[in-house]
Design brief:
The protein has 409 residues and is mainly beta. The protein has 3 helices and 26 strands. The strands form 4 sheets. The protein has a 7-stranded mixed β-barrel with strand order 1-2-3-7-6-5-4. This is Tapasin-related protein-like isoform X2.
Length: 409
């Protein structure tokens, strides 16, 4: 099945990240009005006496420009008075790092940190190479608080000759404006993918660069316990696939359009874990993580649908909960009175079997109790109710009980 077939089948996939026609990023009505996003700048320093690492967090702004005139820019500055909050002003020629942030800004978490280059000059097309001054690089990560998507962008600030600056540092309490360009970004959605067994899963990963470039893409599965498995490697320089795990595919014809997504067919239990999408260009690597959670719905069966007993007769009612994953499942037997709107009574003295694990990794267990027939139970219903995280609503399986009196002798 090719990429376009998956689109028709209803799987949404982001193909590249393009700039809006007016050059202004959109992130819901709140952002369209202010064109700014509250962020946290994270840096660190070593405490001299203790040699401990101290994390420093500063409130900053992320300001995105559009194709506005200088007069409009001056008006914008007047509407945002100096309040000692440092600002990152993204130039209008940059990539649109908020194109996919179509939610209100209150649902977005923005973090900016310095990207340390070890005092080496990053060679980037369109940027001047100067021996006397290094560019300052930053990483900006914007994620939806409900894990709908996440974007990581590389920002670069070019310093002029003889300009007094401290690379990658912001001073607390001092207002300053850093004019930066967004040159490379990686985007994934959603951050958590849930799938049943034997299904095909699409891990959505896209990238955008401010120039045509060959990229290297690598997908790695991180399992619990620190175990890693290389899933796919594509070398942009040779245009060759260097590694491909069983059942893993990429849409090679879509890579030049910014599509780095991975398709995993016929999902198995061993595929559960965190998948990292790494896109490398020049000496920059953008990496995003998508978590795969296996969820298998339980099958619920009771050992009888209706029951006719004589008063005093005993019968073992069994509720089998089969082939579910993950392990945590809850099951209750309820006694529902005929014609009553009251909350059903929870049956007491119910026992549980041990959990059984099948060859495909799913679990099963039983809940059962011994019913002693009473005339009060006549035409009442006993219901097994099962809750599990894979279910939108509990599963209910019921037994209608009829009880007749003991024959006279």
């Amino acid at each position: 099945m090719n990429y376009r077939t998956y689109l028709v089948a209803g799987c949404f996939l982001c193909i590249g990240i393009a700039k809006n026609l007016n050059g202004i990023a959109t992130a819901g009505s709140s952002f369209r009005k202010s064109r700014q996003l509250a962020c946290v700048f994270e840096t660190s320093k070593i405490i001299p006496l203790t040699k401990e690492l101290e994390i420093i967090r500063l409130n900053v702004r992320l300001l995105l420009s559009g194709t506005e005139s200088e007069e409009a820019r001056r008006s914008h500055s007047e509407n945002h008075p100096q309040d000692n909050i440092p600002s990152f002003f993204v130039k209008e020629s940059s990539l649109d790092i908020l194109q996919h942030a179509n939610e209100d800004i209150n649902t977005l978490d923005c973090r900016i940190s310095a990207y340390f280059t070890a005092n080496t000059q990053i060679i980037w097309p369109g940027r001047e190479i100067r021996a006397s001054s290094l560019d300052s690089w930053f990483i900006c990560t914007i994620k939806h608080t409900a894990e709908k998507y996440m974007t990581t962008a590389f920002l670069v600030q070019t310093h002029k000759e003889n300009e007094n600056h401290s690379q990658g540092q912001l001073s607390p309490g001092i207002a300053e404006q850093s004019h930066v360009s967004a040159v490379f970004l990686v985007h994934t959605r959603p951050s958590v993918v849930r799938s049943a067994l034997s299904k095909d899963v699409l891990f959505d990963c896209a990238f955008s660069i401010d120039h045509q470039a060959d990229v290297t893409i690598q997908w790695v599965l991180h399992r619990k316990g620190g175990h890693k498995k290389l899933m796919f490697t594509y070398n942009g320089s040779s245009k060759q696939v260097e590694h491909m795990a069983d059942r893993a595919e990429m849409f090679l014809e879509e890579i030049p359009k910014g599509n780095a997504s991975l398709l995993l067919r016929n999902v198995e239990m061993r595929d559960e874990g965190t998948y990292s999408c790494s896109v490398s260009v020049s000496s920059l690597t953008g990496e995003q993580a998508i978590q795969l959670q296996i969820e298998e719905k339980p099958t619920v069966i009771v050992n009888v649908n209706s029951l006719s007993l004589v008063e005093g007769e005993q019968y073992k009612l069994i509720c089998d909960i089969r082939n579910y994953y993950p392990l945590d499942a809850q099951a209750q037997w309820l006694r529902e009175l005929k014609g009553s709107r009251k909350v059903p009574d929870v049956v007491k003295n119910v026992l549980s079997s041990n959990h059984r694990q099948s060859s495909n990794g799913t679990y099963s267990f039983s809940r059962y109790f011994l019913l002693t027939a009473s005339l009060e139970d006549n035409e009442h219903t006993y219901t097994c109710r099962v809750d599990h995280q894979s279910l939108q609503a509990p599963i209910r399986r019921s037994v209608i009980v009829q009880v007749r009196g003991t024959p006279l002798t």
